[in-house]
Amino acid sequence: MICSPKSLLLLLPFTLLLVSSFSLSCSRSHRNEIVIGSKNFTESLILAEILAQQIESHSKLKVERSFYLQGTFICQQAILAGRIDMYPEYTGTAMTAILKQKPIGDEQAVYRQLKSEYESRFELTLGPPFGFNDTFAIEIRGEDARNLHIRTISQAAPYAPHWRAGFGYEFMERPDGYRGLATAYDLHFLDSPRVMDLGLLARALQDRQIDLAAGNATDGLIPVLDLFVLEDDRHYFPRYDAVPVVRMQTLREHAEIEPLLEELGGKISDQEMRRLNYAVDGQHIDVRQAVHEFLVSKGLVP
What we know:
Structural class: alpha/beta
Strand order of the largest sheet: 7-6-8-5-9
């Protein structure tokens, strides 16, 4: 298509606007500010807030919080586009949902492989693991586990045709989610699984709206609501070690961030993460307060 001079003049303001927007987007990370994202569930929010308070407390950087960004793929696109500088992720999720690979080997080998591929393919890197493994938890009511003498997913499979299942949106779509689980254990349910927000699954299970759910192993409501986590006796799920994903450009421009992430490495146990989740979900403590109290208890902030 050939544009006339008049057409070019009409397009000029729009072109300048695009250039200006692109320049602002590219220069954002050069300012004294970073943006931290999270997915749209409590644990991701808590981990993102831990990152934010750790950086705010020990640097002059301003932190913008961009939380509740839906699921894995939205966060991945946001960080690749430079709209956020870091967010908390899980090794099993990154390997299966992003790299489309099956995690092989121990957690250290998986972490090294993941870090190498993220750096070479995406210009992203991983901070040290926070210290806990939040694998998927296939949950039933505690009373059902006791009455039926069920401890494993294999033992639950014969009862599944009489049960209703509930899963999160992402679990229904991801390669390490429902379809693979159903194949691995030959699971068939009374109806098609109900697709629900992650935050509603535990209560729905307690209220008998569903009979089996895929939650998170560090969910603080599991003991409170007397839920039972079935053993993954066929080892379908990989480890899901929580790690910060960070833009390499951000670390180059703000070198002070890397040692602050190192300080968080190994600081959160499975049990501590359950307590944090319960503080927010069960006791309704403000996430900033819960995180601050935790960081103080660890001697990470004054």
